[in-house]
Amino acid sequence: MIYVVIIFLWVALLLYLVMGGADFGAGIIEMFTSDKNKSRTRRIMYNAIGPIWEANHMWLIIAIVILFVGFPVIYATMSTYLHIPLIIMLMGIIARGTALTFRNYDAVHDNMQKVYNKIFVYSSFITPLFLGIIAGSTVSGRVDPQATNFMDAYIYSWLNWFSVAIGFFTVALCGFLAAIYLIGETQDDTERKRFIRKARLMNVAAVAAGSVVFIASVKENIPLVQWVFGSIIGVVAVSAATVSLIALWYLIAKGKRFIIRVLAGFQVTMILITTTYKHYPNIIILKNGGHLSLIAHQGAEKAIQMLGAALLTGSVFILPALIYLVWSFQYKPGQTDNETGGH
């Protein structure tokens, strides 16, 4: 049952990165949109993220519950030594959701709308930034349970070049996902070309940030190159991501919105595989050379059994409901195959 729990944890993180990432990316796209195009971008954005924006954080909650119940040592370590970036990320999630609600449904539209807009776009940037920083910190080898001062224990555990580079890579990746999703939400050719240009810029930004991540890993003696290219799985995943990126840009011109969304999600999946496969089951690499493992540091057997059963049972209800939710918002009676991207 432990492997069922681990699979659910990995899938929850993946879905949060893909679906929540596109959600956060919508705010990032808005941040880098000119004033004259902002209103149109917001309208198209609502159509894209409307069906699932409130449900996205379900995946984060599931991941947190899995760690809390199934891996208490790992949960305690993260919530202790990475509590500062965790709090900033959670504050960003709260601020973003609040701002999005008030700027859309506030009974009075006045100058406060400008405040809500700024909170929305800045929190859309900050949240994935610190999500990436947290992810990078867990494998950076900077978490130090033996630290004897505040800076070593709670600041340098996450404030390093590698973790920050992962953070900016995550921001660029979210912006890229959002641009790909937004391409399929408009039938206006001018708007579609505008989002294609933004997708290209975010793609370039992601490649540049990814390069910085590798440079930072070399500088800080983190074996990222070995993790990515040191196994046949990693090489195949990188190759598949590259091929799918080429196919994505070819299919964008064909107007196949469903396929390009699948390819964008596939690329994120391949990235996550390359960065987690080699050091599995180690989820936190410590400064003293030790590590916290999903196998060696699992909770009580009874807890794992109950958790696995709950996850399997819950998925029977949650997944069909989520699929229907997305379909019901996207489907429009009388819509042709061309309008749905050929699916």
TrEMBL record:
InterPro entries: Cyt-d_oxidase_su2 (IPR003317). The chain crosses the membrane at residues 6-32, 53-75, 81-99, 119-139, 159-181, 201-218, 224-251, 258-277, 303-327. Its main location: membrane. Coiled coil: none annotated. It is found in: Cell membrane. Belongs to the cytochrome ubiquinol oxidase subunit 2 family. This is Cytochrome d ubiquinol oxidase subunit II. It comes from Mucilaginibacter terrigena.
